[in-house]
Amino acid sequence: MKKILIGVLIVFIIIAVAGGMTLKIITDRADADLQKLLAVEIKEVDLSKIENGTYTGTYQAFPIEVEVKVVVADQKITDIDLVKHNTGKGQAAEALPTKVVETQSLKVDTITGATYSSKVILLAIQDALSK
């Protein structure tokens, strides 16, 4: 009986250590991707050069992933549909597409508390308009 308990304890320790190492790897990757994200510049798009239509854009910085559809008519952004926004705490950033439509610019302030999601949403919009 004692040998079984020791064996179970050893297996439990191995699983705990492996789980901790996996969590550290995932956390380190997310931190690295999010730090790189802060350095990426949002560029203004010249709407006068964009034809009428619906454009799809995506951007991801682990763990955030965004897909948008941007509608352009008469050199104006008329609608932005946030098709996908996978994130943990950045739901507040989902207000950004409305701000972009209102200002007709990607140079809008990010949402406090949702900085990373804000930036990924803006970069997805930029991606759509750059195609």
Describe the protein.
- The chain has 131 residues and is α+β, with helices and mostly antiparallel strands.
- The chain has a domain at 47-129: Sufe protein. Chain: A (Alpha-Beta Complex).
- Helices cover 47% and strands 23% of the residues.
- The protein has helices spanning 2-39, 96-103, 115-129, and strands at 53-61, 64-73, 76-86.
- Strands 1-2-3 form a 3-stranded antiparallel β-sheet.
- It starts with a helix and ends with a helix.
- Can you tell me the overall shape? elongated
How many helices does DSSP assign? 3
**CATH-scheme architecture of the domain at 47-129:** Alpha-Beta Complex
Uncertain ranges: none
Distance between the termini: 67 Å
The overall pLDDT, averaged over residues, is: 89
Binned, the helix content reads 40-55%
Rg measurement, Å: 21 Å
Strand content bin: 15-25%
CATH classification class of the domain at 47-129: Alpha Beta
Q: CATH topology of the domain at 47-129, anyone?
A: Sufe protein. Chain: A
Neighbour order of strands in the largest sheet: 1-2-3
* Structural class label: alpha+beta
Q: Main beta sheet, described?
A: 3 strands, antiparallel
| SSE series | HEEEHH
Number of strands: 3
Give the structure's gist in a few sentences:
With 131 residues, the chain is an alpha+beta fold. Helices cover 47% and strands 23% of the residues.
Topology summary:
Elements: H1 2-39, E1 53-61, E2 64-73, E3 76-86, H2 96-103, H3 115-129
Antiparallel strand pairs: 1-2, 2-3
